[in-house]
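Proteins fold reproducibly. Look at a sample protein:
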Amino acid sequence: MAVTMESAQKLVEQPMQKLENLSSTAYFAGMLGSIITSLVLFLVGKRQWSLFVGLWAPTILNMGMFNKLLRPSQEIRR
């Protein structure tokens, strides 16, 4: 099955459109949730899982920054 440029572009654009519609509060809540979950896992003795989940926070923060800085804002288009 050959992948055309149009199908590859659609594959990339669909998730990006969904991420673009998320507010910055959603990214902040995801980051905070990751930190709290990591803390809880650490306190119950699941240190490896705690480290794994704790590393999600900067990833979520960077996704939010990418959304705000590199993608056009909803307010600008209006």
Notes: The longest helix spans residues 24-43. The chain has five helices and no strands.
